[in-house]
Amino acid sequence: MTEAVRTIQRWHCESCGYIYDVANGDPDGGIPPGTAFEDIPDTWFCPVCGARKRDFTPYDD
Fold first, then answer.
1. CATH topology for 10-58?
2. For the whole prediction, is pTM greater than 0.70?
3. Where are the domains of the chain?
4. Could you tell me the CA-to-CA distances from 42 to 9, 21, 38, 51, 52 in Å, in that order?
5. What are phi and psi of 28, to 5 degrees?
């Protein structure tokens, strides 16, 4: 029996509340739609407030 791996589709910026959605990506920041958060370079910043990638947490509504 295999266990399904759940990938987190949205991430929340703790500084400003921006939600990174895998379906949308961040085209203005060079991140195409469908890009998993884990695959975004560590040098990426929040497009709203400039927070670092490490300032994002998994978002589950």
1. Rubrerythrin, domain 2 (2.20.28)
2. yes
3. 10-58
4. 18, 17, 9, 11, 8
5. -65, -25
